[in-house]
Amino acid sequence: MVTISxxxxxxxxxxxxxxxxxxxxxxxxxxxxxxTGSTDKTKQIVEQFTDRIFDFEWIQHFAAARxxxxxxxxxxxxxxxxxxxxxxxxxxxxxxxxKESFPANIDAVSMNYNLSFDDEGNVSSLLRRYRxxxxxxxxxxxxxxxxxxxxxxxxxxxxxxxxxxxxxxxHTRNISIYKQLVQSGKSLSPRDTFYYANELxxxxxxxxxxxxxxxxxxxxxxxxxxxxxxxxKLADCYSNxxxxxxxxxxxxxxxxxxxxxxxxxxxxxYHFMEQAKNYEAIFWYxxxxxxxxxxxxxxxxxxxxxxxxxxxLCVLYDRLQQYELANAHNELASTFLPNDEKILYxxxxxxxxxxxxx
Length: 358
Known about the structure:
Layout: E1 4-10, H1 17-24, E2 30-35, H2 42-46, E3 53-55, H3 62-71, E4 77-80, E5 85-86, H4 89-100, E6 108-117, E7 123-134, E8 140-142, E9 148-150, E10 155-164, H5 173-183, H6 190-202, H7 206-219, H8 224-240, H9 244-253, H10 262-274, H11 278-290, E11 299-301, H12 307-319, H13 323-334, H14 341-357
Parallel strand pairs: 1-2, 1-4, 2-3, 6-10
Antiparallel strand pairs: 4-7, 5-10, 6-7, 7-11, 8-9
Helix pairs in contact: 5-6, 6-7, 6-8, 7-8, 8-9, 9-10, 10-11, 11-12, 12-13, 13-14
């Protein structure tokens, strides 16, 4: 059986760190916590799980802190988590199974990262990240913010997932770091340009965000997944600026990088739906349901392949007075969100209409 060091960086995480460590304490052989300046009870809580607590002076650089945390590891493999991450009971079992029957000669293991959940508790969006890496490979973290772990060698996609369950979020931290980098005259990498644009958009600086998204896309140096996401983000910026023409152009621009994604189809469906072009909208929402996504795709938002297109098709077929089809799509939407108020209202609505027709 392989041995594993957990390596984390934390600061003022008293509300969540205990929950995280409780979920992982029986899965790893060593816990290393690097504190970057906590002033709350974080360290006291961590002391209940490990005495391997290290201080690191915060220098506005996440990769530097994470690389330091990895340097503290002594076991064969290194696992990393954030303080507001947890392993559910089901994923703890999967992790133990992985650890007990670890594939030979693996250098890095990816796990799903469950980012959001619907009202029924089902995962609605997720991505893949390399979470478990061989220590002697000395893989390095890169990036002052939105850092990434640069891995290589023999890679393995596991069925284990980490769930992200934040209770709060520092909304100004990342954009402040990026602004300091820009003001210092430092040239942003294509990846940092993309993430800086994301931060600008999230803070409603839509025109500035458009500038950096365009800079990112015209560089032609971005990862294809980030290129596609940048197109959708651009569409959102233009939507907020009430520029429908460029909103549509940005959605269609994503086709330059891959076949239409379900999200693009739903966005196009909504574009036509707003104009009461019902048949055109139906076409695109139906496309969202039939496109086959790649297995273990790095980014997945299940909203665009489950209840959303069905609910919109319900509305569209109702407009066309094709009530049986509308009701069928509402029923399909209800298989994903059985307690949703809109879907329950629709059910009663169609019960009345179809009963009257019969």
